[in-house]
From TrEMBL:
Residues annotated as binding ATP: K49
Keywords from the UniProt entry: ATP-binding, Kinase, Nucleotide-binding, Serine/threonine-protein kinase, Transferase
Biological process per Gene Ontology, one example term: regulation of signal transduction
Protein name: Kinase-like protein
PANTHER family reported for this sequence: G PROTEIN-COUPLED RECEPTOR KINASE/RIBOSOMAL PROTEIN S6 KINASE (PTHR24355), SERINE_THREONINE-PROTEIN KINASE 32B ISOFORM X1 (PTHR24355:SF30)
Domain of life: Eukaryota
């Protein structure tokens, strides 16, 4: 679905929605949608994530939106869904991201069933590279899971959705519960205090699920799942030795290690080099991997839609208001704005990767307007993620990872999510 505008576009002016042609919707989140867009001058295709300000304010998610936008400015990596532009109009905030039309791993896991060891090994190598990079930037993602891994058209894996990502500090441990419970490390669900090491645990759980189409720790209630994560031994399916190499099972066991100091990727003075030297990756050419010169064992079928095609139907049936190009009010009076709108106006700043130098907000990028406490109210987003400091919990279809609210109830995430 294209959208044209008769007046000439000033590409020398600050980036805005008029710089892009709007095409099909390919994903949906808590506050808006994701759609394919094309930059009118460069003809490059991107994913446009747009966030409805009024919904954002209603769900008290301003801090998370600003936090995510700031963190994305700090990141540029081949296996991350990188931000290229950020701007806003009177109704929405916009992030223009790398386009990934291969679908998310949850979609393919449901469609294809368990993946081959070769494919999982390849993706975990790519994702390990991305996780190591994020930790070098002092960022912990906190929500690594198949839903938040997108494939490009060639089958390369990319981490997305930094909605609960934060900077970590060597001076203090984090205690807030954030992420998707099935992938949370024992230090998170047990409120023992945690740091960047939790991402390697989540990556291990993700690898296990991609290989066996189930997760190692389950529970019909959040209490039972929490107990399993903290106490149950790691058990592989009976046919695992026939389906996977010894080196593969060894790597999974070392990623899914309860002691952070003994976890693969986390061992003192060894870190990422420990991952690269592991026998599971003994034949991996890490230099070629880093520049995407290695062919993925699994390539999505680009003749088919690798996402839920119903996202566009909502607009055709007028269930939702279609996104349109609209001019901003000139010179808004910040003093007369609601505090939340003013915060967005001042802190969701414009970014243009072709002009702007990426900035780091560390150590200043602490949670915006909030303090991290262990007794927070939590909100579940449409991606199945628990976010601290919010107020509304959404419930929907079963079948996706269970997440946890602060009162211990199990919550199923909505089937719709940010995907592009």
């Amino acid at each position: 679905m294209g959208c044209c505008f008769s007046e000439p576009v000033d590409f020398n002016a600050e980036v805005n929605l008029y710089h892009f042609e709007l095409h099909r919707a390919v994903g949906k989140g808590a506050f808006g949608k994701v759609r394919v867009v094309e930059h009118k001058r460069t003809r490059r295709m991107y994913a446009l994530k747009y966030i409805d300000k009024s919904r954002c304010i209603k769900q008290k998610a301003i801090a998370n939106i600003i936090q995510e936008r700031r963190l994305l400015e700090e990141i540029d990596h081949p296996f991350v869904v990188n931000m290229r532009y950020a701007f806003q109009d009177d109704e929405n905030c916009f992030c223009v991201l790398d386009l990934m039309l291969g679908g998310d791993m949850r979609f393919h896991l449901k469609k294809e069933g368990p993946f081959s060891e070769q494919a999982v090994q390849f993706w975990i190598a790519e994702l390990s590279s991305a996780v190591h990079y994020l930790h070098q930037q002092r960022i912990v993602h906190r929500d690594i899971k198949p839903d938040n891994i997108l494939l490009d058209s060639e089958g390369h894996a990319h981490i997305t959705d930094f909605n609960v990502a934060i900077h970590f500090s060597d001076r203090r441990m984090h205690t807030s519960v954030a992420g998707s419970m099935a992938y949370m490390a024992p230090q998170v669900v047990g409120r023992q205090g945690y740091s960047w090491q939790i991402d390697w645990w989540s990556l291990g759980i993700t690898a296990y699920e991609l290989l066996f189409a189930r997760r190692p720790f389950e529970g019909r209630t959040s209490d039972k799942m929490q107990d399993a994560i903290i106490n149950d031994p790691l058990v592989f399916p009976e046919d695992a030795p026939r389906r996977c190499s010894t080196a593969c099972l060894s790597a999974l066991s070392e990623f899914i290690e309860r002691d952070p100091s003994a976890r693969l990727g986390c061992r003192p003075k060894r870190g990422f080099s420990d991952v690269k030297r592991h026998s599971w990756f003994s034949e991996m050419d890490w230099e070629k991997l880093a520049v995407k010169e290695l062919k993925s064992p699994f390539v999505p079928n680009m003749e088919e839609a690798n996402f839920d095609i119903s996202h566009e139907l909502d607009e055709f049936l007028m269930i939702e208001k279609p996104l349109t190009h609209t001019k901003r009010k000139t010179n808004p009076d910040l003093e007369k704005m609601k505090p939340e709108l003013r915060q967005l106006e001042e802190q969701f700043t414009v970014y243009d990767f072709s002009r702007s130098r990426r900035l780091t907000y560390y150590p200043h990028n602490q949670p915006v307007g909030t303090s991290e406490r262990s007794d927070q109210t939590l909100v579940q987003t449409a991606t199945g993620t628990v976010i601290p400091n919010a107020t509304i919990i959404e419930r929907s279809q079963p079948g996706s990872p269970a997440t946890m609210s602060e009162d211990g109830d199990q919550i199923s995430p909505q089937s719709t999510r940010w995907s592009h």
